[in-house]
Design brief:
The chain has four helices and six strands. α1 packs across α2. It is 34% helix and 21% strand. The chain has a single domain, classed as Alpha-Beta Plaits (2-Layer Sandwich). By secondary structure, it is α+β, with helices and mostly antiparallel strands. The chain is globular and about 50 Å long.
């Protein structure tokens, strides 16, 4: 790791990367088709709104894997809560038959997430995330990279 790979804030240099996994509520197979194509760019946009960068991301049929870079001024819980909450609302607005008086997107994501710091094993984590589609026993034809 070189010093050029570190980001800067006003009084710090940082390189904070996390491997995040979260699932749809009830592990429903909802991450295919139009919703999947809609979520990929949306995740990147929402992460950017918190000065974060998704380095690698992959959606298989029942979970989302991402390698994300989060500045130390934000907690992991804050960023993931923001991404899950805003994406659920956006999906409900885009794909719900009701255009008014809906209760956000409270039915899309399950509560919680799994997180692990990456450290110097970034290449291994990227490989793991890329291989998730192959490891998925039902393997649909659709590409889940975002």
């Amino acid at each position: 790791m070189t010093t050029s790979s570190y980001e800067s804030l006003a009084h710090s240099k940082w390189d904070c990367k996390y491997h995040i996994v979260f699932i749809p509520k009830g592990r429903k197979k909802e991450l295919y088709g139009k919703i999947r194509r809609f979520l990929g760019p949306l995740f990147h946009e929402l992460a950017g709104q918190r000065n974060c960068k998704i380095i690698e991301g992959h959606m298989v049929q029942d979970h989302v894997n991402m390698l994300i870079r989060i500045p130390p001024k934000y907690s992991v819980a804050e960023v993931i809560g923001y991404i899950k909450g805003k994406s659920a609302i956006a999906v409900a607005r885009q794909f719900s038959s009701r255009k008014r008086n809906f209760n956000g997107g409270e039915r899309l994501w399950a509560r919680g997430y799994a997180v692990s710091t990456v450290g110097f094993e970034e290449a291994q984590i990227k490989t793991y995330i890329r291989q998730q589609e192959q490891l998925d026993s039902k393997g649909f034809d659709e590409n889940g990279i975002f």
